[in-house]
Each structure stands twice: as C-alpha cells, then as structure tokens.
Specification:
The structure is a single chain. Helices cover 40% and strands 14% of the residues. By secondary structure, it is of the alpha/beta class. The protein has a 5-stranded mixed sheet with strand order 1-2-5-3-4.
C-alpha cells in the first residue's frame, strides 16, 4: 500500500503518525496505547492521545505474539470498544468528525490491517 493516508468514512481519515502533518488533517488523534518510537510530541502535532480506546495491553501482546488473526483481533477489539468508557470516547470522536475531519493516527507499518482500521470500522458502523 502506498504512503498516502487512507480515506475513511463519515469524516475520518487514517494516517501513520510518521506521515507529514497536513492542514487537511483536521483534529489529529493518536489511537495507540504506546508512544511511537522516534517521534517527538511536537512532530506528532496531536490534538488528542486517546490511549483509553487503544487495544488493551493483553490484546496487543497476544496479537503481536501471533495468537490472533487480524479478524480475531478486530472482533476482540470491538468488544473492548463496547465498554462504557470507550463508548463515550467513540461518541466524542463521532461528534468531532461531524464538525470536520478527524485523522486517526497509528504507528503500525501495516496500513490496512491495524488497530486504527479496526477502530474505524467500529466508528462508522451503523
């Protein structure tokens, strides 16, 4: 996949945190639990670091250990996002996206199968 941001739906865009900041990014949200290596806070130009909706440490570690396929990870992550605290944050992000673009930032090298793509699927689900 190219180095270009992935257009999402309903006001969301997916982008690696390492990609250049652009005026069209709108509200920039890092959706990883861990701070990305080699990126300064100034370079990230974040409006929000949403650690509270990142995959749990257990889910992240089990996925990296190869215990889950991407589909199994996405399903387990969606269950975490259904918890009350996460639902509030999701509602906040949806409201922000209704007002203007929201860029969901992630550090994973894989652009099409990562926590941000799984999060986007939950955010735009009916």
């Amino acid at each position: 996949m190219s180095g270009k941001p992935t257009s999402g739906a309903k006001g969301f865009v997916l982008k690696r945190v390492q990609d250049p900041v652009e005026a069209t990014d709108g509200f920039r949200v890092l959706v990883d639990r861990l701070w990305p290596r080699g990126i300064s806070k100034a370079a990230a130009a974040l409006d929000l670091w949403a650690k509270d909706i990142a995959p749990s440490t257990d889910l992240r570690q089990r996925t990296h250990a190869g215990e889950f396929s991407y589909e199994e990870f996405a399903t387990a992550y969606a269950l975490e996002l259904a918890l009350p605290g996460a639902r509030d944050r999701l509602d906040e992000l949806r409201a922000l996206a209704a007002a203007g673009p929201v860029t969901l930032l992630f550090a994973a090298r894989e652009r099409s199968r990562n926590n941000a793509t799984a999060l986007l699927a939950v955010l735009v689900a009916p």
